[in-house]
DNA sequence: CTGATCACG
DNA sequence: GACGTACGTGATCAGG
């Protein structure tokens, strides 16, 4: 096969303008705007990746405008005189385009006195004349004249990388109605207001096309003018003939420019990785850098990424928050906020927000539940103190929200305002920043608005500072705390505005001026926090986990929350009733044994009854001066033959199940959707795990037969099934990988029962007892072992436990080294890291309090393992939608595959029965491959999948 | 509001 | 010399 040469000519200057308007306003770690540069970089990357493909380049060069002066200015001094100045934040990006091109080691052509279009035309013709194929990477209509095939058989086409569309002769004809060689004639008639090419006044694309179609050429059309029947058009053609002829010259591309670089020297090879890596690092393009290092088909050579120890010890003790100089910002001034009560005002604000390209958004609602609350208002901020509040659902005290006679303050009709906001909130070109924006996503999704692209200051804070805050609501990432810590500002609190407890009023009843101060401040603070926190990500190594793991997850989790899961109310009600009967019976029996009535549910009363009145031994008082009556104590009593202990244990189980599950879940059913919608927190667990609240669906019973009956109440819709996909032993597998434990790795690779294998190694034989003990030891390892802890669990003495630990370390070399290394690193740096770079801080790791310190040490050993597992399932979740869509499985559609729940190492889906066999392999492979390509694990990730009508059957 | 207890991974 | 034992969560209840 004779390989045909294929030259790609990239119209760099034109691209950057389009990229600027298409992409959000990103900045690099130094604060330089780089959104357009990022777009340019990804485009070059994609082109370079196509090197080996059929339609891909063999040769490639970038053509840039050196100056806007050319021969055209000499013949027409008004040429391009109307060009507006480029936007302020685009100007500094021009030189970066050159840097980017050099970073890719690509030939770059920029000649003074010649426009890029002419240079592209000259190269394209020269290459086509040699019989090469040419692709012009641009969508500039002027260049469409060039499309076609040369006598030597070389084709010239165009590629619009933003729309991934090829433009050949057919596409040109579709656009202009004429063949490519006549495009210049059409353009000459049309003119171009941006380049200030006059054309013929009053002739637009439609008329121009028709004239050329009818007469065959510009000259013929102009010549035919005198014979036309009397019309405005005829007059204009006659009067402005000279303009058209001048325009024809201006739109003609100069195809004989001197070629500064020989075409043969534009050969495209493998891109040298070093300069590219330096460039990507400088501008904080973490995702590309990761691909380069991960060798994922990127343009660079394959290299293995080494999940690193934290590199920068100085970071450890850098004070958080004020370590960076605060960007100069005026103090918060609530009197500067605007309250938008008319369509005109809102219109102006939306326009300003489009221009700002970065807007902080916050919604105010009537309640905390995003699935039920009514929208009361929206606030926006586009700069410090430049914030507004748009009241939408306010009413005066006493009136009801839906009471049409209630007195309402002046406000824009809700649907009108939302229709106006929708284009802004959905525009690709405007970044929407929120504090916990998942909430706003859900509220607005219920009004048909799909907010994107998004940023979240809470998630940014979590990527930077997980674990740093000692305590506090929102895990230390709540807005009031962040404002205090980073901006030194005390926010108005919700309590101050709405009151607390019984006297609390819904936000809709807050007077509008007061509501404006509160709501607009939230948006203002969010805007400020974003500008303050975002740059820290790149500096402190948080970009990868934020951009690649957590940020993409926000809309995914929001979708899961909106889907909810169906629970069978009747089934729960029946269980509640049964549990009520049995607890009542048990209570009577317990009172009888005790010889008096008391509150069984009170540990204090129970302790007194058991150990004082009834005189059982083994009572231990804790620091509260109260006997402990927990499960282990009661089980010991039970073993000594105390019938009351058995009954109390049974009572507790049923009471727990009834109050926490069968009663509470019925209440949690959303009356509108008839489903249960949990709320996931993305910052709930310091290790990076999700947590679930209202209700918590991550602790639904499974371990006991009676508990599993509750799980059976979680069901699929009619005609659907639930599919549960579990990672098997993921944390042990990760421990085997991260600590490089050869015997464990081999056992996993061979698909062995890992606890049995451990039992074999440790005790020399496998039976029920040794396997159970081995399982306990395996978990002990993951949690940071102590001889006393293990002794307690196994019911042996501490020194026996120590012997077992020693045997474990000897049999599984690597584990001890991993533990010691991790603790040393954390002591030194203050944080641990997952394989994907997620940090967890341990501020008490060097505490003088031994218990505190040892607690931190165990947590620090566990965090990289638990956190890596969390990263992996999060990556799987983010990829699941696109993977299902590609397989035609319609993620999120009512008749497609819907992802409903995440339980740390398990994902639960709902789907029509008929899709199961198609969905199973997709889900399986997305989950099993979720660590790659960034991380190549030395153990396979096992995924077990089951299906059934209910959640229990799906296991 | 805190501590004890117990549901999950 | 005493401490207090596995990591990570959230909901509920009793009691101050």
UniProtKB/TrEMBL annotation:
Residues 290-329 are annotated as: Disordered. Residues 337-538 form the 3'-5' exonuclease domain. Residues 3-269 form the 5'-3' exonuclease domain. It comes from the Bacteria. Residues 707-915 form the DNA-directed DNA polymerase family A palm domain. Pfam families: 5_3_exonuc (PF01367), 5_3_exonuc_N (PF02739), DNA_pol_A (PF00476), DNA_pol_A_exo1 (PF01612). It catalyses: DNA(n) + a 2'-deoxyribonucleoside 5'-triphosphate = DNA(n+1) + diphosphate. The keyword Ribosomal protein does not apply. Belongs to the DNA polymerase type-A family. This is DNA polymerase I. It comes from Alteriqipengyuania abyssalis.
């Amino acid at each position: 096969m004779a390989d045909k040469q294929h030259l790609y000519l990239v119209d760099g200057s034109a691209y950057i303008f389009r990229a600027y308007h298409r992409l959000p306003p990103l900045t690099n770690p130094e604060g330089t705007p780089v959104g357009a540069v990022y777009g340019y970089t990804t485009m070059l990357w994609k082109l370079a990746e196509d090197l080996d493909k059929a339609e891909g380049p063999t040769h490639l060069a970038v053509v840039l405008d050196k100056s806007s002066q050319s021969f055209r200015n000499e013949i027409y001094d008004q040429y391009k005189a109307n060009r507006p100045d480029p936007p302020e934040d685009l100007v500094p990006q021009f030189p970066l385009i050159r840097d980017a091109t050099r970073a890719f080691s690509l030939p770059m052509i920029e000649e003074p006195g010649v426009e890029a279009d002419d240079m592209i035309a000259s190269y394209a013709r020269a290459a086509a004349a040699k019989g090469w194929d040419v692709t012009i990477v641009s969508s500039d209509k002027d260049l469409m004249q060039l499309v076609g095939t040369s006598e030597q058989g070389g084709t010239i086409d165009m590629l619009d990388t933003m729309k991934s569309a090829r433009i050949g002769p057919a596409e040109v004809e579709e656009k202009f109605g004429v063949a490519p060689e006549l495009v210049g004639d059409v353009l000459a008639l049309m003119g171009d207001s941006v380049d200030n090419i006059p054309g013929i006044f009053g002739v637009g694309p439609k008329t121009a096309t028709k004239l050329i179609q009818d007469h065959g050429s510009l000259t013929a059309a102009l010549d035919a003018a005198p014979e036309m029947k009397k019309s405005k058009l005829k007059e204009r053609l006659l009067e402005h003939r000279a303009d058209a002829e001048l325009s024809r010259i201006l739109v003609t591309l100069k195809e004989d420019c001197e070629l500064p670089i020989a075409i043969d020297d534009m050969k495209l090879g493998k891109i040298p990785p070093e300069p590219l890596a330096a460039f990507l690092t400088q501008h904080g393009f973490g995702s590309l850098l990761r691909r380069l290092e991960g060798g994922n088909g990127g343009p660079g050579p394959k290299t293995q990424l080494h999940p690193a120890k934290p590199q920068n010890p100085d970071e450890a003790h850098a004070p958080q928050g004020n370590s960076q100089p605060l960007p100069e910002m005026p103090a918060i001034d609530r009197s500067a906020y605007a309250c938008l009560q008319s369509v005109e005002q809102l219109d102006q604000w939306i326009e300003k927000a489009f221009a700002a390209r970065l807007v902080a958004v916050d919604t105010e609602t009537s309640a905390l539940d995003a699935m039920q609350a009514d929208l009361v208002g929206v606030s926006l901020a586009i700069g410090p103190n430049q914030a507004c509040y748009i009241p939408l659902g306010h009413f005066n005290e006493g009136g009801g929200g839906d009471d049409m006679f209630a007195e309402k303050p002046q406000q824009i009709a809700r649907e009108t305002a939302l229709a106006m906001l929708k284009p802004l909130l959905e525009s690709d070109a405007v970044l929407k920043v929120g504090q916990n924006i998942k909430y706003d996503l859900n509220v607005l999704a219920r009004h048909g608005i799909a907010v994107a692209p998004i940023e979240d200051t809470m998630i940014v804070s979590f990527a930077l500072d997980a674990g740093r805050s000692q305590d506090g609501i929102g895990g230390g990432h709540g807005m009031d705390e962040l404002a205090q810590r980073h901006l030194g500002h005390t926010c108005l609190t919700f309590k101050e505005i709405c009151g607390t407890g019984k006297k609390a009023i819904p936000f809709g009843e807050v007077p509008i001026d007061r509501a404006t101060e509160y709501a607009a401040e939230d948006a203002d603070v969010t805007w400020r926090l974003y500008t303050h926190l975002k740059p820290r990500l790149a500096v402190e190594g948080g970009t990868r986990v934020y951009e690649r793991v957590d940020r993409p997850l926000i809309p995914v989790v929001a979708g899961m929350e909106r889907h909810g899961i169906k629970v069978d109310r009747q089934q729960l009600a029946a269980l509640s009733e049964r549990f009520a009967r049995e607890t009542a019976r048990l209570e009577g029996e317990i009172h009888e044994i005790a010889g008096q009535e008391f509150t069984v549910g009170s540990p204090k009363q129970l302790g007194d009854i058991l150990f004082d009145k009834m005189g059982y031994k083994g009572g231990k008082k804790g620091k509260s001066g109260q006997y402990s009556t927990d499960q282990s104590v009661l089980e010991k009593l039970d073993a000594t033959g105390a019938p009351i202990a058995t009954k109390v244990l049974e009572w507790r189980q049923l009471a727990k199940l009834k109050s926490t599950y069968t009663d509470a879940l019925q209440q949690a059913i959303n009356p509108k959707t008839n489903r249960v919608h949990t709320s996931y927190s993305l910052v709930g667990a310091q290790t990076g795990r999700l947590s679930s609240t209202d209700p918590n669906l991550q602790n639904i019973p499974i371990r006991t037969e009676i508990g599993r009956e509750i799980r059976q109440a979680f069901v699929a819709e009619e005609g659907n099934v639930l599919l549960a996909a579990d990672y098997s032993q993921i944390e042990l597998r990760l421990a085997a990988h991260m600590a490089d434990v050869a015997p464990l790795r081999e056992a996993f690779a061979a698909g062995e029962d890992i606890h049995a294998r451990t039992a074999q190694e440790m005790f020399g034989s496998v039976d029920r007892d040794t396997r159970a003990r081995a399982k306990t030891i395996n978990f002990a390892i993951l949690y940071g072992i102590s001889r006393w802890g293990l002794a307690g669990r196994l019911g042996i003495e501490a020194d026996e436990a120590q012997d077992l630990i020693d045997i474990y370390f000897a049999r599984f070399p690597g584990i001890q080294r991993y533990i010691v290394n991790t603790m040393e690193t954390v002591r030194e740096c203050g944080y641990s890291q997952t394989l994907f770079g997620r940090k967890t801080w341990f501020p008490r790791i060097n505490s003088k309090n031994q218990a505190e310190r040892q607690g931190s040490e165990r947590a620090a050993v566990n965090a990289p393992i638990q956190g890596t597992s969390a990263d992996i399932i999060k990556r799987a979740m983010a990829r699941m939608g696109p993977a299902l869509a590609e397989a035609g499985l319609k993620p999120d559609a009512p008749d497609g595959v819907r992802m409903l729940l995440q339980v740390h190492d398990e994902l639960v889906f709902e789907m029509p029965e008929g899709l199961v066999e198609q969905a199973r392999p997709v889900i399986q492979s997305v989950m099993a491959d979720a660590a790659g390509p960034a991380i190549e694990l030395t153990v396979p990730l096992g995924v077990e999948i089951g299906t059934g009508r209910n959640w229990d059957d799906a296991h």
